[in-house]
Design a protein that fits this description.
single chain; four-stranded antiparallel sheet; 15 helices
């Protein structure tokens, strides 16, 4: 230790002396391995133990706790339901981990439970959790190359794998985002500044009055982020034209072509088609090939929101379920959905790399380099975000651990499980599913207390009662702790919704879920 230039003998106080005011000074000042490494190892072991205690004590016990929100607030904050003041004094790590066990662990949404069929929250793969740990320790700010030397390269490599997955060529590019909402917002920004500018014959990105009279086309199953993104970007509310989906909740080319013709005849400017590959409501997949034909013929930008469904490309036997992604100008993917990654990691891919750079590149005076002849990749030039987390590491490690084939096996198992659930509903008299065969791994189904024939004869008042029955049944399942599904509204009716991205679930879990729903329904 005496050979260190900053050792205590040089006049520099030890870390333990500098942080002696804390009960665990070795966890604050950890530059001396002799003083702190053992303590950090103990902290790591204790934290990992707390995580596994949560997993096996709570995470696999029930999908979610039975509390309603007011009760949860009172239990967490106290009788008045309000946050407490900031803690004035330091506390040892053992107390904090115990507080996690007592106050937080019993009240999580537990994606690891084998009958948790959530919106799109998968159980994260353990190797991806290791990636998060390493990313947080290295704490790379992935904005400019010098602040994240290899993190920059890891993201470039992961993006290359994603580009290949959707079928893009070498001129394409992409960037990781916080999730699908951010990726869709950025895609719309690129479509405005590049696609609309080109359509209007402008040399500058269109703003203000130039955004009036423009039209974008989506189905009634499009994600809310498309409407929100247009609003954020300054487009008038009437910009978005929502078209009805077909009997399988898909957007087809014919209705879009007709709407474009009508709008052109009215003096409007058709600009964008936003397709969805795996809608949140039903898992429906728009007819992307048909929409690409329309977009190419009429000169529109085609964006595909494949945040959920794009992962099907990982499964070679099932990739045909999500065709023609390579024909889109931009594609959203969300690895924290069906790539089984912990939050957060989304992604935006574009067919032409320069579209991203032209849209987002700025030149802050503090982002300078002393080696312009050897310029590294600066990610801030390709993203709406500046400093970003080292999101790529967990996916990089996971992809290396599983390989594309391993990813595909997990996706295929979920697709088979969704087909099993839909088949069980078709074979029964007291459950109904729509559509009868799912596009991907979302199954919308409902319980019919009197059977199919009786449900077909229900009058409007009884149909409303049937809707209320689904809501009550969902809540009863939640309280029981034996499983979890959400609810949604489709064509004016309430349906239970199972979003199966749980690679820990089996056919036995699906059968038990239906049995539990039957038992609970009998008691309502």
């Amino acid at each position: 230790m005496t050979d260190r230039p900053d050792a205590p003998s040089s006049g520099r106080p030890s870390d333990l002396e500098r942080f002696g005011w804390h009960p665990e000074p070795e966890l604050l000042g950890y530059t001396d391995a002799a003083e702190s490494r053992e303590a950090l190892e103990r902290l790591g072991e204790a934290a990992w133990r707390a995580a596994l205690d949560y997993l096996y004590g709570e995470g696999l016990r029930r999908p979610v706790g039975p509390d309603d929100h007011p009760a949860l607030r009172r239990g967490f904050f106290g009788p008045d339901g309000s946050p407490s003041p900031a803690p004035p004094l330091p506390a040892p790590s053992a107390e904090l981990l115990e507080e996690f066990r007592r106050r937080l662990a019993p009240h999580q949404f537990n994606a690891q439970h084998p009958r948790a069929f959530s919106y799109f929250t998968p159980p994260p793969l353990p190797i991806s959790i290791v990636g998060e740990l390493l990313a947080q320790w290295t704490n790379q700010g992935v904005d400019i190359g010098p602040s994240s030397p290899t993190a920059t390269l890891v993201e470039e490599e992961v993006v290359a794998w994603l580009r290949e997955l959707v079928g893009y060529g070498p001129e394409s590019f992409g960037v990781l985002t916080s999730g699908g909402v951010m990726a869709n917002l950025m895609a719309l920004t690129v479509a405005r500044d590049i696609g609309l500018a080109r359509l209007l014959g402008r040399s500058e990105p269109p703003r203000g009055s130039a955004l009036e009279g423009v039209r974008a086309y989506v189905s009634d199953q499009a994600h809310f982020s498309i409407a929100r993104g247009l609003d954020v970007l300054g487009f008038p509310a009437e910009t978005l034209r929502v078209l009805p989906s077909d009997e399988r909740f898909r957007l087809r080319g014919g209705p879009v072509a007709a709407a474009i013709a009508d709008d052109r005849a009215a003096g409007l400017t058709p600009w964008l088609i936003a397709a969805v590959t795996g809608s949140t409501n039903t898992g429906s997949v728009d007819l992307t090939d048909e929409l690409a034909d329309v977009a190419e013929r009429d000169g529109l930008w085609l964006h595909v929101d494949a945040a959920y469904g794009g992962a099907v490309r990982l499964a070679a036997r099932e990739a045909g379920r999500v065709p023609a992604l390579e024909r889109a100008d931009s594609v959203t993917l969300d690895p924290h959905k069906w790539f089984f990654q912990p939050y957060d990691i989304g992604g935006l891919l574009v067919k032409r790399r320069d579209d991203l750079r032209q849209t987002f590149h700025r030149s802050p005076e503090y982002y300078r380099t002393s080696r312009p002849e050897d310029e590294p990749l600066h990610w801030y030039q390709y993203s709406l975000e500046g400093t970003r987390r080292f999101r790529a590491l967990k996916l990089w490690l996971t992809w290396k651990s599983l390989g594309t084939e391993g990813f595909g096996r997990l996706v295929e198992a979920n697709l088979a499980l969704a087909a099993h659930l839909a088949r069980r509903c078709r074979e029964s008299d007291d459950f109904d599913a729509t559509p009868e065969e799912p596009e991907l791994s979302v199954v919308c189904f409902r319980h019919l207390p009197g059977g199919r024939a009786a449900a077909a004869r229900l009058d409007p008042a009884a149909l409303e009662a049937l809707d209320r029955h689904q809501d009550r049944l969902q809540r009863a399942l939640e309280v029981s702790g034996d499983g979890w599904v959400s609810t949604t509204r489709l064509r004016g009716a309430t349906w239970l919704r199972a979003g199966i991205v749980n690679y820990l679930a089996t056919e036995a879990d699906v059968d038990r879920l239906l049995a539990t729903l039957r038992r609970l329904a009998a008691g309502l």
